[in-house]
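Dear colleague,

As promised, here are the two records you asked about, laid out in our usual form so they can be pasted straight into your sheet.

NAME FIELD: protein one
SEQUENCE, THEN STRUCTURE:
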Amino acid sequence: MEIIPNVHLIPGVIANPYLIVDPDGLTLIDTGLAGSHKKILKYIAGLGRAQADLQRIVITHADGDHVGSLAALKQAAGARCYASRVEAEAIAAGRQSRALKTRGVQKLLFGLIAPLFKARPAVVDEVLAADQTLPVLGGLRVIETPGHTPGHISLFAPAAGILFAGDSMVSSGGALRESRGMNTWDERLAIESVRRQAALGARIVCVGHGPVATDAAGKFPRV
């Protein structure tokens, strides 16, 4: 599904992966659960592009629903992977970058579904720093957005007015909300990250879970 020219949401994948088409190749933001690489590669083929056109994979954070297919995609396409230092270390170890705050029945339920979120270890080829700009979509700037996880990043393309927010926010009911609850490492930092992102002036916000938020200025949480 094309959101704006050259920016696509690949449907049917948990969590939302986004594909950016530039003249020099393709950039993927997040990879979904393990096994999602098949849908991602099929979508790329549907655009008339080859697997080898996938040059970059940027990971917002190391949760299994965002990094699960990274190893398979790197093997298939030879793409380079980018992430923050904290998340890169977790990806290399095949684990999350923080523990979930589960208790009682919740802990039991998450224990049962944990295998679905398991990710194979993978190599991150380049560690990203705050305010670094990638040569993607006219300039894709790295925004530090800790809170959901310690090293969570978002990515902002000022020329297109589009923000890729990962799980720093969730889209629901026509509005955005900050990360909170048992899967949030630090709720105070999560709120600070939302404030930082709201100040960017993005017109479109692409989140990991929920629909893309258009006309986003009035949809940021009031925190």
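NAME FIELD: protein two
SEQUENCE, THEN STRUCTURE:
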Amino acid sequence: MKRNLGLTAAACVIFAGGMLGAAFAAVPLYKLFCQVTGYAGTTQRAEAGPGRVVDRTVKVRFDANIGNGLPWRFRPVDRQVEVKLGEISQIHYSAESRAAGPTAGTAVFNVTPALAGQYFNKIACFCFSEQHLAAGEKVDMPVTFFVDPAMANDPDLRYVDTITLSYTFFPAEDGAAVKPLAAAPATKSPL
């Protein structure tokens, strides 16, 4: 009888530990799933362009938002571009700190329609790392991207002629130290 209670207790502890581990692993696994599949409008990351351009064009619109608690002004410099599928394009966002001291932000992003996320590829983006701004600092934030030519063969997206790339900056966990922008050299630009 004691042996059965010990086995039951051990099984419960192992089960509870496994459930706790699964809870902590759920967020990173979901993020990985979204990055691989483009699920929920998650964009892809690429090292280089696809090497071919097709004749189909799409408009890409740009959206910018700031989460509560981050004293920045953030906006797209380029509101919209028209690109051919496979064509590499670079656009710019602008950020300005309105804080009296150093601040840091992290951008989350998505693409609509969500199905287009698997075809939207970023080569360089400020969203790949935490961004730090000094008090009153203004910076240019480029994004280099392309829309995969394979989108032309997706029957679910055959009538899609506009894609929206949206960013929202939230306060970063560690906003104390001021560091330069990681994705591109910081350049002063008037807002």
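A couple of things worth noting about protein two: The two ends are 76 Å apart (CA to CA). The longest strand covers residues 57-66.

Best,
R.
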